[in-house]
Amino acid sequence: MARLSNYLAGIGASVIFGFSFLFSKNALDTLQSHELLFLRFLCAALVMSALVLARIIKVDYRGKDVRPLLATALLQPVLYFIIETEGLRHAESSTAGIILSAIPVTVTVMAAIILKERLRPAQLVTTLLSFSGVVLVVSFRASGKIGGSPLAYLLLILSMLCAASFNILSRKSSRSFKPAEITFFMMWFGAISFGLIFLVKALGAIGSGAPALYTRLTPPALSAVLYLGVLSSVVAFLLVNFNLSKLKSPEAAVFANLTTLVSVIAGLAFRGERLLPSDLVGALMIIGGVWGTNVYGAKPGIAIKRAIVKGKDDSIDGFKK
């Protein structure tokens, strides 16, 4: 069952991811998507390395099989971002919102099959309640603009499967690796992968007369890179991987639905969007679903007994105690 630290981690990650859309939009005014991804994960990898050198976090891969980490990092961030970006080129963002909101439901099915982690009937109901809340908010905000090509649907479904599979593999990897070790590996794998894509495209653009990258790193773009690299990559993924190490995959994944709620609040606060009645109803459904999925995770007696036996604190594994 979720403890206070799990709620704080889940809400924290959702808030960071929710505001990342605003920063990404600012950066993409002057940067190409492959440039933003490379700079984002290079920044994240360097920050993680600095934390390791300062001994704020500890990583140790000696004698461990890193193949699960390779699969985890390939799914998220590499394949997920590449496939999702291409899918968004051919579909309305509202379509992507609805498809990607199925991640917690998909995780529930996959966790039951692969990890043998099954939810109680009450948790299944609350998971579907949260999913329905997201669909309600996105559908009414779409104003009839939901659509896209068959290719777009396929790509977005593939990106959703990548994100769901990441939840499963990160949960499985947490049996051998600490959250900080998983996140460190992910950030460097992303930096190297997107760096190779950036290099290929940069070599192909030689002689085209395109403005140099440094000339397009405006203050808004640079602040967006720092936000996405430090908060949306390092901090948020540390929180996500922490929850995946403590909770069942479906219980951790359901927090992702809060991201939709945060993005709506961000639009109201910074873009002057109006509040719809469906937003309030959807918000209650999302919050109620997230709360219910974790509250019904274990009987009180079992939860207390596990807490006493384990005797662990709520700090994020991998950080210096």
Helix-strand makeup class: mainly alpha
Distance between the first and last residues' Cα:
24 Å
- The general outline is globular
List the domain count as a whole number: 1
What oligomeric state is this?
single chain
Strand content: under 5%
**Count of runs of 4 or more consecutive helical residues:** 13
Biggest sheet statistics:
none
Low-confidence stretches: 300-316
| Percent helix | over 70%
How many β-strand stretches?
0
Compute the gyration radius: what is it? 20 Å
Features:
321 residues, mainly alpha, 74% helix
Describe the structure.
The chain has 321 residues and is mainly α. It has one domain. It is built from 13 helices and no strands. It has helices at 4-27, 33-53, 67-89, 93-100, 103-115, 121-142, 150-173, 179-204, 219-246, 249-253, 258-270, 277-295, 300-310. The longest helix has 28 residues, at 219-246. The protein is globular. The two termini are 24 Å apart. The relative contact order is 0.21. Residues 300-316 have low confidence and may be disordered.
In brief:
The protein has 321 residues and is mostly helical. The chain has helices at 4-27, 33-53, 67-89, 93-100, 103-115, 121-142, 150-173, 179-204, 219-246, 249-253, 258-270, 277-295, 300-310. The protein has one domain (4-207, 218-307).
Secondary structure blueprint with pairings:
Elements (H helix, E strand, L loop, with lengths): L3 H24 L5 H21 L13 H23 L3 H8 L2 H13 L5 H22 L7 H24 L5 H26 L14 H28 L2 H5 L4 H13 L6 H19 L4 H11 L11
Helix pairs in contact: 1-9, 1-11, 2-8, 2-9, 3-7, 3-8, 4-6, 4-7, 5-7, 6-12, 8-9
